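Shift notes (night). Ran Helix-turn-helix domain-containing protein while the centrifuge was going.
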Amino acid sequence: MEPLTYTVDDVAALLGVARGKAYEHVRSGAIPSIRIGKRYLIPRERFHAWLNGETSSPRGAA
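Came back to this:
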């Protein structure tokens, strides 16, 4: 079973970018994420939709 979310480190590895660059894009909102406490989580479906250039969020997610 695949995880529902990725961490910023996961996304950095998937994109082949530095961890700091991934955090920069998550904080700016360029990469879709949610913040829980001090932690950022990237919903897997929203990340892959973003990566594929889809403009609307799947299942009406914000």
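The two ends are 24 Å apart (CA to CA). The chain is about 40% helix and 15% strand.
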